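Researcher: Please generate the 3D structure of the following complex. Treat every line as part of one assembly.
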Amino acid sequence: MPSARPVFVVTGPSGAGKGTLIKGLHGRVSDIEVAVSATTRPQRPGERDGLEYRFLSDEEFTRRVDEGEFLEWVKYVSGRRYGTLRSEMERIAADGKTCILELELEGALRVQDQVSGSVTIFIAADVPELERRLRERATESTGEIGGRIALARNQLEQAHLFRYMVRNDDVERATSAVAAIVECEMAFAGTMAPP
Ligand code: 5GP
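Model: Done. Output below.
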């Protein structure tokens, strides 16, 4: 899929702070919008359908997979499915905005392969810090936190597969680093001749 503006993919292990860093971009970088993914995982308290995610039943998710509505989708460690809707990315592009995707690694690699002009940013954090954040967030069961930590250890070894790596040991510094990457890549894309 050719794209005039870069599509930014923020990835990394659960608890690395991807969501916090992305929120921090608003106000620092103009005309960006985070694509709302679809998922079959249950809604957490405070989450609203259509804002954090589109919460779909298993049947509805499968129907959309069959219709080819997803750019990518994965079955996560929890057994729940998550996917990026093509229509959501198209809507953001049609609004003249730069699309930000927050994805786990498998999906991020797929977008990196399939979307020309995609820019991947891996957010890293130390394992003890990840564990502390997940326990503090307390949105998953103890068993599920264990699964996410085991996955995180494995994922941290894959950071080199992505274009950029930002260590989130200091939120302010890491947010500035991600904002600098986004602005720099957007400025660079603006200097390229159209295909
Ligand atoms: P959570 O359940 O904590 O909201 O998300 C679990 C993981 O799924 C996170 O790493 C998040 O980045 C990832 N994720 C959210 N939406 C998508 C998506 O559309 N596709 C993929 N591949 N991963 C997603």
